[in-house]
Amino acid sequence: xxxxxxxxxxxxxxxxxxxxxxxxxxxxxxxxxxxxxxxxxxxxxxxxxxxxxxxxxxxxxxxxxxxxxxxxxxxxxxxxxxxxxxxxxxxxxxxxxxxxxxxxxxxxxxxxxxxxxxxxxxxxxxxxxxxxxxxxxxxxxxxxxxxxxxxx
Length: 152
Known about the structure:
The protein has helices at 2-13, 20-32, 46-56, 72-76, 111-128, 139-145; strands spanning 35-38, 61-65, 77-82, 87-92, 99-103, 131-135, 149-151. By secondary structure, it is α/β, with parallel strands linked by helices.
């Protein structure tokens, strides 16, 4: 196990420089089944960090950009009728992954909707055993609705 963790960290260091503590905390959160809250200025490598973590684990990475019009089906996917096939089919949403980046969750305007979507995300990630990286600048909201966070 230790060798795998060191291999993942060394691989991440190939694209991320000077953030050893952040990488350690991400790996700790991942191993403990927690979620990570990344708060930092734009352009400081938060998405690169999440992508490199997924790639280093040979996992899949997906991202959800939070906007005021985001619906739960935008995250989970939806059933639709395929007229060509004559049947209903399911199109997976981004929650079907190993590492999910919930980007700018605080952008959403309605706090009730934010809380509902946040609780839904936590439920889905725990059900599917997904690691989730959350990017937000609204710590107050996240403290109200989050159950497990490793802050960096």
